[in-house]
Design goal:
Structural class: mainly beta
CATH architecture: Beta Barrel
Shape: globular
Number of helices: 2
CATH class: Mainly Beta
Largest sheet: 10 strands, antiparallel
Number of strands: 10
Helix content: under 10%
CATH topology: Hypothetical Protein Pfu-838710-001
Radius of gyration: 15 Å
Distance between the termini: 27 Å
Number of domains: 1
Length: 148
C-alpha cells in the first residue's frame, strides 16, 4: 500500500536542497483508474508499476524492475503522451521528498510528493511546497498530459 501526499511547488529552493536528481521517461499501458499500468525508464533502469484505485492518499501499488531494453520496447507501446521529467530528491525534517519538474507539453508544472508510512503520519512542509493536490485526479501521473 502506498500512502502519498502531493503538492504544487511554489519556488525553486528545492534545487539547492536536493541531494540527487534523475531523468525519467514514463508512459502508461493502461490509464483505467482501477488498474493503471506504468512503464518507466529512470536513468538507465526500467520499471513496470501496477497501481489500483485507492481512497484519499492510499492505493495499492506493485513495482518491479525489468530489463532496460524491455522497458524501452514497452514504452513504445504506451498510450501518448510519454511524460518526461527531472526528479530531485530532497531530505527535509527526516523525510524524503521527490520533486518532479516536467518537460515538453507539461513545462512549468512542478509537483512535490512525499510517501508516508501511515495516514496519520505527521510531517513538516518544506519551504518550496504550496497547495496540496493529493486526491486531485488532474495531478495523477496517469492523467498528466491528458487532462492538462
Amino acid at each position: 500500500m502506498e500512502i502519498e501526499h502531493k503538492y504544487l511547488v511554489v519556488n525553486d529552493s528545492f534545487k539547492q536542497m536536493a541531494n540527487a536528481e534523475s531523468e525519467i521517461h514514463q508512459g502508461f499501458l493502461s490509464r483505467i483508474p482501477e488498474r493503471t499500468v506504468r512503464v518507466r525508464i529512470k536513468d538507465n533502469r526500467g520499471f513496470i508499476t501496477v497501481k489500483g484505485k485507492g481512497a484519499g492518499a492510499s492505493h495499492p501499488e506493485f513495482e518491479y524492475e525489468v530489463p532496460f531494453d524491455d522497458a524501452v520496447q514497452m514504452l513504445s507501446l504506451c498510450e501518448p503522451p510519454i511524460i518526461k521529467k527531472t526528479r530531485y530528491i530532497v531530505m527535509h525534517d527526516g523525510n524524503r521528498w521527490e520533486v518532479d519538474v516536467f518537460h515538453g507539453d507539461l513545462q512549468g508544472l512542478i509537483i512535490a510528493e512525499l510517501e508516508v508510512p501511515s495516514e496519520d503520519y505527521q510531517f513538516a512542509l518544506p519551504p518550496f511546497v504550496g497547495l496540496e493536490v493529493t486526491g486531485d485526479k488532474r495531478y495523477y501521473n496517469s492523467q498528466l498530459g491528458v487532462s492538462f
